[in-house]
From TrEMBL:
Segments forming domain Cytochrome b561 bacterial/Ni-hydrogenase: 8-176
One biological process term in Gene Ontology: respiratory electron transport chain
Protein name listed in UniProt: Cytochrome b/b6 domain-containing protein
Keyword list, A-Z: Cell membrane, Membrane, Transmembrane, Transmembrane helix
Topology of the protein relative to the lipid bilayer: Multi-pass membrane protein
Length: 218
């Protein structure tokens, strides 16, 4: 019997849709030169990413990495149509999520060493050699282009499954519920994620406070 079950907890859904907003605003602030806001968005994104990684170990069933990361054989069987998608991420989609997270981390790390050569320097820019600064600047630009391609593929895949296979993926990520033949584990209390995010933000603030200030030559 197919029934409606709670699939995505609200922290996971909030993380997902926050990415949409933050990535769009990050592009716009960089384009328009609002680097102070660009930096704030980057820190916010870093807190969200680290929180999501931790939530991938202690969060609700569908949000845990162990629930959607499968080995090569399972992924290959899925591509051959021998394994169904199931609730949550399918075997291929699970790894695409990890690639997206990795690319976002690369974007942020490279941004820490980046500079616009005018008014803005990343918090670690002055600690790096000129060669490393140039390299990270190139990585920051290229990684964003790759990220846009990955996002486009992700959106196309969602629409494909939404209309071709009649899987209400968008509705599930909006409402949190989905239809499944088997019951899913109860979702974790959302306040767990809030506590994790606050601890991550405090740790990040503390680490950045330890970074030596750049030497002033004025």
């Amino acid at each position: 019997m197919v029934s409606a079950y709670k699939l995505w907890d609200w922290p996971t859904r909030l993380f997902h849709w926050s990415l949409v907003v933050i990535i769009a605003l990050s592009w716009w602030t960089a384009k328009e030169g609002h680097m102070d806001w660009h930096e704030r968005l980057a820190y916010t994104l870093l807190v969200l990413l680290l929180t999501r990684v931790l939530w991938g170990f202690v969060g609700s069933h569908a949000s845990r990495f162990s629930s959607f990361l499968r080995g090569p054989r399972t992924v290959l069987a899925y591509l051959k149509g021998q394994v169904g998608p199931g609730a949550g991420h399918n075997p291929l989609g699970g790894w695409s999520v990890m690639l997206l997270l990795a690319m976002l981390f690369l974007q942020i790390v490279s941004g820490l060493f980046n500079s616009d050569d005018i008014l803005f320097d990343g918090p670690l820019y002055h600690l790096a050699s000129s060669e490393w600064q140039d390299r990270m600047g190139q990585v920051h630009v290229i990684a964003f282009d790759v990220l846009l391609v990955m996002i486009a593929v992700h959106i196309l895949a969602v629409f494909y499954h939404q209309w071709r296979h009649k899987q209400p993926l968008i509705q599930a990520m909006l409402r949190g519920s989905a239809r499944a033949r088997e019951g899913l584990e109860p979702t974790r209390p959302g306040w767990w994620a809030i506590v994790i995010a606050l601890l991550v933000a405090a740790a990040l603030w503390g680490l950045l406070a330890l970074v030596p200030a750049p030497v002033s030559y004025w």
